[in-house]
């Protein structure tokens, strides 16, 4: 899968108090980049705890459920768009179906 934008992930783990997200986000990035997702079932096989919401959005728990990652997937183009990465508190303030 092609992932847009790694920069968003990097900016997050460089924030004060978020450095512990670096390794889990890099692991997610590497695993996802090597994957070919044709449907939500493909994602679920790799990430059993992923949550699926409207508009092809998927929510991942990162770093032992300390952080949240929301992506949008365009399966036909094999593209993943990073829509949000943040703490649980920040996640509670967004609508994952519209970010």
Walk me through the topology.
Elements: E1 2-4, H1 6-13, H2 22-34, H3 40-46, E2 51-53, E3 57-62, E4 67-74, E5 79-87, H4 88-91
Descriptive notes:
The protein is α+β, with helices and mostly antiparallel strands and 99 residues long. It has one domain: YaeB-like fold. The chain is 32% helix and 29% strand. The protein has 4 helices and 5 strands. The chain has helices at 6-13, 22-34, 40-46, 88-91; strands at 2-4, 51-53, 57-62, 67-74, 79-87. A 5-stranded mixed β-sheet has the order 1-5-4-3-2. β2 (51-53) and β3 form a beta hairpin. α1 packs antiparallel against α2 (22-34). The radius of gyration is 12 Å and the shape is globular. The model has no long low-confidence stretch (mean pLDDT 95).
The Rg value, from CA coordinates, equals 12 Å
Query: Would you tell me the overall average pLDDT?
Result: 95
Helix run count: 4
Count of all domains: 1
CATH fold name: YaeB-like fold
Write the CATH architecture name: 2-Layer Sandwich
Sheet-strand content, in percent, reads 25-35%
Summarize the structure.
With 99 residues, the chain is α+β, with helices and mostly antiparallel strands.
List key phrases describing it.
single chain, 99 residues, alpha+beta, YaeB-like fold, five-stranded mixed beta sheet, 4 helices, globular
């Amino acid at each position: 899968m092609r992932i847009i934008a790694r920069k968003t992930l990097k900016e997050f783990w460089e924030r004060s108090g978020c450095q512990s997200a670096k390794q889990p986000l890099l692991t997610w990035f590497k695993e996802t980049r090597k994957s070919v997702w044709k449907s939500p079932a493909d994602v679920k096989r790799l990430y059993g705890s992923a949550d699926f919401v409207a508009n092809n959005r998927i929510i991942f728990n990162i770093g032992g459920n300390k952080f949240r990652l929301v992506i949008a997937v365009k399966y036909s183009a094999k593209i993943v768009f990073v829509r949000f990465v943040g703490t649980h508190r920040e996640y509670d303030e967004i609508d994952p179906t519209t970010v």
